[in-house]
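Annotated sample (chain length 77).
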Amino acid sequence: MPGTDLKEKLISKLKEINDPAILEEVSNLFELQEPETVYITSEEQRKAIEEAKEQIQNKQTLSDKQADKEADEWLSE
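Output written by the structure step:
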């Protein structure tokens, strides 16, 4: 079974990891930890988040390269 092989490989790799930062990232990936921060947002912030979600759904996004270029242009003004 391919899924079983992959699980075994992942388990084996996890057993070899000694770096706490990597283990914490893996833990976050699997959502094993409780969120440490609760964010309280204003109505304005919630609207901005909803607007951003809509932009993502409508594929109105920038690549990393485009965003970096725009940020560089904005900072050089």
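Annotation: The chain has a mean pLDDT of 88.
Annotation: The chain has two domains: 1-36, 39-77.
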